[in-house]
TrEMBL record:
This is Ferredoxin. The keyword Iron applies. One of its GO terms (molecular function) is oxidoreductase activity. Residues 267-282 have a biased composition (Basic and acidic residues). Keywords: 4Fe-4S, Iron, Iron-sulfur, Metal-binding, Oxidoreductase. The keyword Transmembrane helix does not apply. Residues 197-226, 227-256 form the 4Fe-4S ferredoxin-type domain. Ferredoxins are iron-sulfur proteins that transfer electrons in a wide variety of metabolic reactions. It comes from Pelotomaculum isophthalicicum JI. InterPro entries: 4Fe4S_Fe-S-bd, 4Fe4S_Fe_S_CS, MvhD/FlpD, PSI_iron-sulfur_center. Residues 261-282 are annotated as: Disordered. Transmembrane segments: none annotated. Its cofactor is [4Fe-4S] cluster. PROSITE patterns: 4FE4S_FER_1, 4FE4S_FER_2.
Length: 282
């Protein structure tokens, strides 16, 4: 037996309750065969699948991911969530490509509840393709540690990526489904990840009004009365809310792109110098 034939990929499918799961069920009842190592997870709608689910699966060693939903325009919800699913998957495929992972490891397909044979065919074809491709990372020539680091870096940026691409992620291109294949370009993704902003509170300007800390959605701002505020860069999801919220008379928050963020002010040195007092001393 060759080394390739011995490789059993870890494959995960997240499929919608109403159509694709019905197709998988019919596939089983009809005794159509597909590889037993494809693990299926049922969700109510393909739009429920988040970018984080996909990257978490790859970070945990999945060799391939499959998203299955109802045919476009057959979604059981008025939201037509499968349009959002296809946009999200196309974005993830570009991100995978950006970090050096073969984007063909992520696939989205539509299967109705009456298409048991179609479900089996897709699973068999996808499994054969992944088996031929080989294990995640190894096939791409990326070692395990490097692969994990790259996936973690993108995972950390998912909230920022979702915000930056929110318009495209919400698009419903109903008259031209093929347009999804070119919705995101490699250059666009390279630029997006090159220009990731960081936010920094200028200790000389911060007046500890606490507005930013109250508005931060992830509690990434270290805040105390009378103390210069500090952004915890590890927690920050780069949403820019604090930048918008800091009152113009203070303008204490800087948006930094392409250069390192200054180190935080040490804990014992955060007492605010009130602007009025500063003037008196001068
Ligand atoms: S950019 Fe967003 S997440 Fe980061 S500190 Fe500001 S409000 Fe919080
Ligand atoms: S909103 Fe501006 S001035 Fe107020 S605490 Fe935050 S950074 Fe400081």
């Amino acid at each position: 037996m060759s080394a390739e034939a011995k490789f059993t990929p870890k494959m995960i499918g997240i499929i919608c309750n109403w159509c694709c799961y019905g197709g998988a069920d019919l596939c089983g009842v009809s005794r159509f065969q597909y590889p037993p190592y494809i693990r299926l997870i049922r969700v109510m709608c393909s739009a429920r699948v988040d970018m984080k689910h996909i990257f978490r699966a790859f970070a945990n060693g999945a060799d391939a991911m499959f998203v299955g939903g109802c045919h476009l325009d057959d979604c059981h919800y008025i939201t037509h969530g499968n349009y959002e699913a296809i946009s999200m998957v196309q974005l993830c495929r570009k991100l995978l490509e950006h970090v050096g992972i073969n984007p063909k490891r992520l696939r989205i397909e539509w299967v109705s509840a009456g298409e048991g044979i179609r479900f089996a065919n897709i699973m068999n074809e996808f499994a054969a393709e992944i088996q031929k491709m080989g294990p995640l990372g190894k096939a791409e020539g990326i070692n395990e540690i490097e692969l994990k680091t790259r996936i973690e870096e993108v995972t950390k940026l998912i909230p920022y990526i979702k915000l930056a691409k929110q318009d495209k992620l919400a698009l419903h291109i109903r008259d031209n489904h093929d347009a999804y294949n070119e919705l995101y370009t490699s250059d666009e993704i390279d630029e997006l990840l090159r220009e990731v902003p960081s936010y920094y509170i200028d200790p000389e300007k911060c007046q500890a009004c606490m507005t930013c800390a109250r508005r931060c959605p992830v509690e990434a701002i270290i805040s105390a009365k009378g103390q210069v505020h500090v952004i915890d860069q590890e927690k920050c999801i780069k949403c820019g809310t604090c930048f918008e919220a800091c009152p113009p008379r203070f303008s204490s928050i800087r948006k930094i792109v392409g250069e390192p963020v200054p180190p935080p002010v040490p804990e014992g040195e955060r007492a605010v110098v009130r602007k009025s007092k500063e003037k008196e001393v001068g």
